[in-house]
Design goal:
- With 91 residues, this protein is of the alpha+beta class.
- It is 48% helix and 12% strand.
- It contains five helices and three strands.
- The protein has helices at 26-37, 42-49, 53-61, 68-78, 82-85; strands spanning 2-4, 7-10, 21-24.
- Strands 1-2-3 form a three-stranded antiparallel β-sheet.
- Strand 1 (2-4) and strand 2 (7-10) form a beta hairpin.
- Helix 2 (42-49) crosses helix 3 (53-61).
- The protein is globular and about 30 Å long.
- The protein starts with a strand and ends in a 6-residue tail after the last helix.
């Protein structure tokens, strides 16, 4: 198992050539959970980060890496620690 972007790759079978399945990482799931808990749309959070809704959606799906500056902005916005936001601890 290895991590790529915001996803965790789990190979089904290298021998028979089947494709990999990707599962959202903890931090990308945490972004969505916090947004929904605060009754916000992706567009609302995108405004806070000064990015497009599409770009924010990619962060939530784990298809785009979230720069540390934006992680800090989100941690301040949601009043949580970076550890909690990235899934290193639960607040």
């Amino acid at each position: 198992m290895c991590t790529r972007g915001g996803y965790i790759d789990r190979e089904q079978s290298e021998k028979n050539g089947k494709t990999r399945r990707q599962y959202p990482s903890i931090w990308s799931r945490q972004l969505k959970e916090l947004r929904e808990r605060n009754n916000l749309s992706q567009a609302d959070v995108a405004k806070v980060l000064h990015c497009s809704q599409v770009a924010y959606g990619m962060y939530e799906l784990g298809k785009r890496k979230l720069p540390i500056e934006r992680l800090i902005t989100l941690a301040k916005f949601y009043h949580v620690s970076l550890d909690s936001l990235t899934g290193l601890s639960r607040e």
